[in-house]
Amino acid sequence: MTKPKLLLSNLPIKDLTSETDYLGIIDKGDLIKAFLIGNKDQFDEIKMFSLYGEWGSGKSSLMKYLEKELKTEFNTFFFEAWEFEKDENLALSLLEFITLNDTDITEELYSDILKYGGRILRGLGKSIKLNIPLYPNGPGVELDPSAFVGEISKGEELTFYKALENFKTEFIRFEDKITNGNNPKYNIVFIDDLDRCEPEQVLNLLSAIKLFFTYGEKTIFLCGIDKKAVEQAVKTKYGEIVKSSEYLEKIFDVSFSMPEHDDLFKLISVYFDSTDYKMSTDIQPINHRISEFFQYLEFSNPRRVKKVLNKYQILRNIKLLSLPGKYSQFPNIDEKDKSQKSYFETILVLYLIILHEFYPEYFASFLEFNLKSKNYYQSLERNTTFADKSKTYVRRVIQETSFNNYSTTPLVSIPFGDSFSASFSICILPSDVENFNDSILEDEEEISKIIIGDNKIEILFYKYIFENYVNMGKDEFLSDSSFLSIKKLIKNAL
User: Which of 359, 381, 408 represents a domain boundary (last residue)?
Assistant: First the structure.
């Protein structure tokens, strides 16, 4: 028996190579690497670097790549902030992490750094008694001086400002210690997973780094940042007093952005091969077709795409194992076995997996014809510019179409033609639309007018099918599966 195919991990790629660089991020990594190595002489002034990218865009993989590539030029530290999320003070956790991860420092130096660092960091964000501006005319970090006198050396009289001076001295001493001899002369601290932490923790950590960790002359910080998440955190904390974009510009000296992932072809090709799929007179490799399909849906977040493709691979494995008595009417989806299967069923399965995983309300309403009929009638009533004659036609189409029977019709028996049938159209239309009318079934420009709420992906799928409908009708590999059986398969198996 053929072995089931393995799935790709959603974890960051720790040893990124040209073979595993599915997102094309090595080029970006090499650019950042060259920049950092070539500008060391400015690290006494430039300390804070950001790598912007949305959740799942590959920031962690890129930072892991940089950590490996920069080891000969820097002492590297990789702080995964999310692992310390439960700690009361992320900034203090960072300080402990940096000092604990270097075996060359003495116990005395370690103790002094934590003693003075703990005093200036303890109580971060707890009070409004002391306010230190992050930058001129900018927001301040709220600190409670009473919290600076911690459990260590309670009897010692030490002001906040004296503790700050002592910490500065000890931090520079720490830098000198770990960069001496044959060690690299500079340090780089990677801070990852900030977008998985609570907003307040994120802002406190960034503020602490900006204010207290940049006294040295040999240590820089590269933070992986979901820009939208931090901007929302700034807005929540400071309201309209501080512009979120200005906050980030002032915190970070230099910013990089993850490359755009408009082309996911290399990732898609891990799951789909180059087998030619013929649709009418159009012949294209299946990996090109699927790549274009994801682009058309504007569904390009790498982590989300990988999750969808892994779920798709699970269905392939189920079909390969031929589990007895289960999952009857299995769709004739591409199996990466060098032979053409049903393209329509393949993209229908991919689309329903997307809905199931990321838009559960749309997945639930798919094929809910009573709900659709109700919403379409309401849309007709709202549309005052729609002629009564046309409204009557649409009502008759809805009333006379046996939607429920159509959902169980084997796909091979669907009467594809040169234009949409009403039944087929309403099977894949969103449940809630604006300006529903007969032109939606035949006019591409009208389709773009029916968006309501956040159902863009439903509209894009409908448009994709609309534009490729004639070729879909030439699909010679449709099976006995139905819309309903495929939905049930995804719901029950995934």
Answer: 359
Q: Which of 306, 333, 359 is the last residue of a domain?
A: 359
Q: Which residues of 119-176 form beta strands (DSSP E)?
A: 130-133, 140-143
Q: Between the CA of residue 373 and those of 270, 338, 404, what are the distances in Å?
A: 41, 42, 12
Per-residue exposure over 335-348, b if at least 16 CB sit within 10 Å of its own CB, e if not: bbeeebbbbbbbbb
The answer to the question of residue 1 being in a domain is: no
pLDDT digits (tens, 9 = 90+) for 303-345: 899 899 999 999 988 887 766 456 567 899 999 999 999 999 9
pLDDT digit string (tens) for 423-432? 777 778 787 7
Parent domain of 108? 26-257
**Can you give the pTM of this predicted structure?**
0.71
More confident call, 186 vs 432: 186
Residue 476: CB atoms within 10 Å: 9
Residues 294 and 414 in one domain: no
- 197 in any annotated domain: yes
Which of helix, strand or coil describes residue 241? coil
Q: Residue 21 domain-assigned?
A: no
Q: Are residues 103 and 237 in the same domain?
A: yes
Are residue 247 and residue 269 in the same domain, yes or no?
no
Is-contact 419 442, C-beta < 8 A? yes
Contact status, residue 431 vs residue 367, Cβ threshold 8 Å:
no
Regarding whether 281 and 249 lie in a shared domain, the answer is: no
Q: Are 169 and 49 contained in the same domain?
A: yes
- Number of C-beta neighbours around residue 156 at 10 A: 10
Please tell me the distance from the alpha carbon of residue 318 to that of residue 316, in angstroms, as a whole number. 5
Residue 442: in which H helix or E strand, if any? none
CB atoms < 10 A from the CB of 409, how many?
18
pLDDT value of residue 153: 46
pLDDT at residue 87 in the model: 75
Task: For residues 54 and 121, state if they share a domain.
Answer: yes
Q: Which residues contact 29 (CB under 8 A, 6 or more apart)?
A: 16, 62, 65, 66, 69
- Helices and strands per DSSP (H, E), number in the chain: 21, 9
15 belongs to a structural domain: no
